[in-house]
Amino acid sequence: MTARKTKANAANGKPINLTRKEGESDGEAIARNILGPGARHGVTHAQVMQAQMGSLANAPDVVDYAKAVEGIADKGAAGDLDFASRLLAAQAVTLDSMFTELARRMALNMGEHLHATEIYARIALKAQANSRATIEALAKLHQPREQTVRHVHVNDGGQAVIADQFHHHQHDAQGGTGNGQSSEQPHAQGAPCPALPCPNPIGPAVPLARDQGQEPVQDARRKG
Fold first, then answer.
1. CA pair distance 87, 85, nearest whole angstrom
2. Which of 6, 10, 92, 188 has its Cα between 20 and 30 A from that of 157?
3. What confidence tens digit (pLDDT) does each residue in 74-126 have?
């Protein structure tokens, strides 16, 4: 399947380069690209940034934001965790700042306005919990994953020997994950232990009275 470039116009009249697949109409190509994360998130970022920063000279438009989002998404899909790490760290700091500000406002209302104190305290604790969860997610993102592979060896006599091998998934230099080298992974040492022999693999039989017969009973009668 081949792909070629086609052009469409944004709301401001700026041309957009779209990827068009073989046998795909212009409308289908435009719809598929618009439904992608870049275009939709680009519109959101354009609206949010304009509300936060106002009209700036040489301000980026929807197309510029869409291209930036697509570039970040492509790196994330390739396993680059740099943006995710920086984003989580920044969010943790922002949430902690929210906690301290809300805690300050809670202290100002304490003793006089109990209802406002309760509201500020509740929101402050939520910000604190989310900050802690974000830090935990950041630590988990960079923590090597450990996978246990269990090998079961069944020997003669029915004894099973279980050996565990641990495979560590470490992050490479680009931030991606991969399996550790075989030389760095611990392996089960030695051959499996043989099963202990048993003279009767079924086990000793339970004695039955009819098999062993009756023992002689002592004669309790006195002979006269």
1. 5
2. 188
3. 999 999 999 999 999 999 999 999 999 999 999 999 988 999 999 999 999 99
pLDDT at 218: 62
Residues 62, 117 within the same domain: no
Asked if residue 22 is part of any domain, the answer here is yes
- Give, in order, the Cα–Cα distances in Å from 119 to each of 95, 96, 101, 107, 125: 17, 17, 13, 12, 10
- Are 6 and 26 within 8 A, CB to CB? yes
**Length of the chain counted residue by residue:** 224
Local structure of 168: helix, strand or coil: strand
What span, in angstroms and rounded, lies between the C-alpha atoms of 73 and 59? 22
Cβ contact 151:163 at 8 Å: yes
Give the H or E element holding residue 116: helix 114-142
CA dist 117 and 175 (Å) reads 44
- Domain boundary residue, one of 169, 184, 199: 184
Helix pair angle (62-77, 37-53), 10° resolution: 130
Say if 132 falls within a structural domain. Answer: yes
Total count of domains within the chain: 3
pLDDT in tens, 184-205: 545 555 555 555 555 555 555 5
Please indicate, yes or no, whether residues 15 and 72 belong to a single structural domain of this protein. yes
Gyration radius from the chain CA atoms: 36
pTM: 0.54
Residue 33 in domain: yes
What are the structure tokens assigned to 112, written together? 């006089």
